[in-house]
Amino acid sequence: MAPTYFCRFPGSKIPTAIAAPRFFFRCVLFPGVVPARGAGELMHPSRSATPLAMDQLLLSLPDIKTERLFIRQLSLADAEAFRAMTDEPAIIDAIHFLERPFTLANAEKLIGSNQDGKDCFWGVWMLGEPALLGTVGTHIRDSETIEIGYWFATAAQGRGFASEAVRGVIGALVRVYPEHLIVAECRPENVASWRLLERAGFQPDGADGNRPGRKSLVFAPNQNTR
């Protein structure tokens, strides 16, 4: 069976799955966007005098509100709440870069990574409530690709908060940066997270993820949203 590849064709804002012979490669075409000469920049022909620095992409995203949730970039003032929410064995065991125990210094370090704009951790709260429910991470992988990830406190799971937050963040990314490919990685045996990503519009692309045991998924809502 021919593998599936995802290409973005001129005039389309989302990648399209196509079957292709094995000598094809996975591609993403960005209408109206061409690489700038400087590393880490995109140059839009319509604004050719104004390069878009990659390290400013995520910092420019506004706060997000969904039906039940308020989502914003975490600040150092959130560090203790972030530590307490994250320092659970089930979370630390699932996220490869989290240390055990997850200390206040660890929390401050991750939140501090927000400042470069390439890695940004978003806090998720119920509207009008002070308790931090979880986080959605957005990570610039290259000039074409943004990766998302997430974890939520055990007490906040099973209520649809993660799904609602992921959809909210993806919606913001698509609106502001429609030319970027959005990807995620997940262990196939993590059925709940895999189904969450599929419901949010992701589809496996057949490739291994960058982390051991994980598979790559790409946001392609026209193929899989339900």
3D structure, described in words:
This protein is α+β, with helices and mostly antiparallel strands. The longest helix is centred in the C-terminal third of the chain and has 16 residues. The chain is globular and about 40 Å long. The two termini are 25 Å apart.
Determine the strand fraction and express it as a percent band: 25-35%
The helix/strand class is alpha+beta
Report the principal-axis shape: globular
| N- and C-termini, Cα separation | 25 Å
- What is the overall pLDDT average? 78
Count of alpha and pi helical runs: 6
Which regions are unreliable across 5 or more consecutive residues at pLDDT < 50?
Answer: 1-14, 16-52
What is the helix fraction of residues, given as a range?
Answer: 10-25%
Give the neighbour order of strands across the main sheet: 6-7-8-9-10-11-13-12
Oligomeric state of the chains?
single chain
Could you spell the SSE succession in H and E letters? EEEEEEEHHHEEEHEHEEH
User: Biggest β-sheet: count, sense, barrel?
Assistant: 8 strands, mixed
